[in-house]
Predict the structure.
Amino acid sequence: MNTYHHEILTSALDARIKEVTEYQVNITNFSLAIERIGDDPELQEFKSNLEALLASSTLEQRKAQIMLDVIKSQLE
């Protein structure tokens, strides 16, 4: 692997680590908000939106994690 290739992968590694971490922060925040809302009838629409965001963030984090793992494997 040449130096430029290694630099690109290293930069991509840092970006993916940040991406996975940011998704985790959102996942935690959405989960805690959903829990806090509970059965409050006035907030059920908001809760549904949060549940959709949680599902989306969880899926996107899985994708980002796969890419992170692939990048790590190339740097080994």
